[in-house]
Amino acid sequence: MTKSLDLYPTRLPEHHAPVRRRDPVVHSRNQHRWNGPLDEVALSHYERDGFLWFEGFFSQESMQPFFEELKEMAQDPEMLKSEQVISDPASGAIRSVFGMHELSERFSKLTRDPRILGMVRQLLGSEVYIHQSRINDKYGFQGSGFDWHSDFETWHAEDGMPRMRAVSASLMLTDNNEFNGPLMLIPGSHHQFVPCVGETPEANWESSLKAQKVGVPDETVLADLGKRGGIQSPKGPAGSLLLFECNVLHASNGNMSPWPRSNLFFVYNSVDNPLGVPYAAKSERPEYLGARRNVKPLEIHDDFPELAGQGVEPLQGHG
Amino acid sequence: MTKSLDLYPTRLPEHHAPVRRRDPVVHSRNQHRWNGPLDEVALSHYERDGFLWFEGFFSQESMQPFFEELKEMAQDPEMLKSEQVISDPASGAIRSVFGMHELSERFSKLTRDPRILGMVRQLLGSEVYIHQSRINDKYGFQGSGFDWHSDFETWHAEDGMPRMRAVSASLMLTDNNEFNGPLMLIPGSHHQFVPCVGETPEANWESSLKAQKVGVPDETVLADLGKRGGIQSPKGPAGSLLLFECNVLHASNGNMSPWPRSNLFFVYNSVDNPLGVPYAAKSERPEYLGARRNVKPLEIHDDFPELAGQGVEPLQGHG
Questions:
Q1: Where are the alpha helices (DSSP H) in chain A?
Q2: Domain residues for B260?
Q3: In this structure, what CATH number is given to the domain that contains residue B159?
Q4: Residue A206 forms contact with B (CB below 8 Å)
Q5: Looking at beta carbons, which residues of chain A come within 8 Å of B254?
Q6: What integer is the mean pLDDT of B23-35?
Q7: Where does the chain cross the membrane (chains A, B) (predicted)?
Q8: pTM for the full model?
Q9: Does residue B45 form part of some domain?
């Protein structure tokens, strides 16, 4: 495995200005763009802002079984010892669980939900696989926040992800409101790559998943992007869905409310964008943080496989 | 000075359930209640929630001179050395300045603004003085938050304030928005006094103004009050005003935005509620945290004293 050309140098010894993104935001090109399921209004919105918000995408009730399963996991002492479970720096409570889709059939099926997978394939213009899945929990009054960062910056530096061709689907398992630490995003920030200062320490992930020390964008650049694009923080009931581009800057505040906040993240990467040698780290991260073995294209989960193919032929088009 | 009956025991060795408030919320009684300037809608709102929000009370432009004066102070090395200036635990930047109204004529006049002073006298049912004044600054990306607390709990325990007969006026010197750490309040929480666990350490204020360790309400009680009353976070342009009762639970989150947040607080206490021996601390706090000497009733500042008395006689009423 050779290190390919580095389009996005980061973890540098000194400050560098942001560089323009050199990848498309919507990767389905030309007539493929309009094959659905997203329409042009949604696509150009995603290109402009770097995210799409679907309030109440699933029903609130349908989230309950996922939440229950997580609560069971949280009581399993074996689980709590696993390195896939990250505890909160302040309270010691569960902050993140990684690799959800491999621990549970229910979560695995959800990653292959036809509607989510359809949108993700259209945005990435190819078959896709799960680069990483995780759940971020913030208990009432307890969960710490996450500082501003681009996920792609980390995946590029520490996982060797070459191009910006990945998307995160974040599914709300609880209501997200103004006070329980919802995700905040800077619309349009995905058009710039913000190089970060500082060499990646050995086994950085062991501490960075609790509080990030490198891969932190410069405050002046952040302020500039924030003042230009503003900040948005989608809020809604359990079952709401956020799709966000791998390079959009995002953060979240602590949970100051009595209401727990539990969000599920599935990161989809294009099969044409496989991980290589890390661009700015000495060794690869574990499989549950950046998949290298389990990268088979996802197949749509069909609740009624015996009816496959049922439907009406489309009218003859012009394309 | 003898210690008077303690209606609100706190800083106890073990957990105690909340006790019902034993003071009125609006202290002007019977026909005095309707002498204005607040009408019954506002008064009963204040009784129910514990605060009143006036969006754009002053014009944005009129706040500019105050902001400028603060910026000058922040560059004064003498000021920065003063114990009245508290720095941020994370960034070292100015977090709070106490005793604003004694450092500056402009701020002093503002505490005696006819409209503010009129409302405060009506709520407290007497002449009033400034118990404490302060400015809380949160620079972009930097300001830490404040955990949930009742101001009265501290003033009772550490300053010997006997009764709940004080009100804070918080004036926004900058816009307050969802992302720059606005004040959050639990409506209705002022009806309960939440006793806190833990003895007050010697000279507690030297660290408690940065991050509070005692005087922290129990999380179960907080969750109960928060779920019952919800959380509200008034937001608006510079010049907006919040009046909040001394016992309402409030907090604020860190500033995750590029926009600074600067709020001014004037705490008015009734002249009939003077400080005594602290109920749960070994010594008194400094004058700039809890006034004992400078407690003359405030006189309304009049921009046109030569026109005093000008106006129309009210019609003969029934009272």
A1: 40-49, 64-74, 77-81, 100-103, 105-111, 114-124, 151-159, 205-208, 219-229
A2: 56-270
A3: 2.60.120.620
A4: no
A5: 145, 253-254
A6: 93
A7: none
A8: 0.89
A9: no
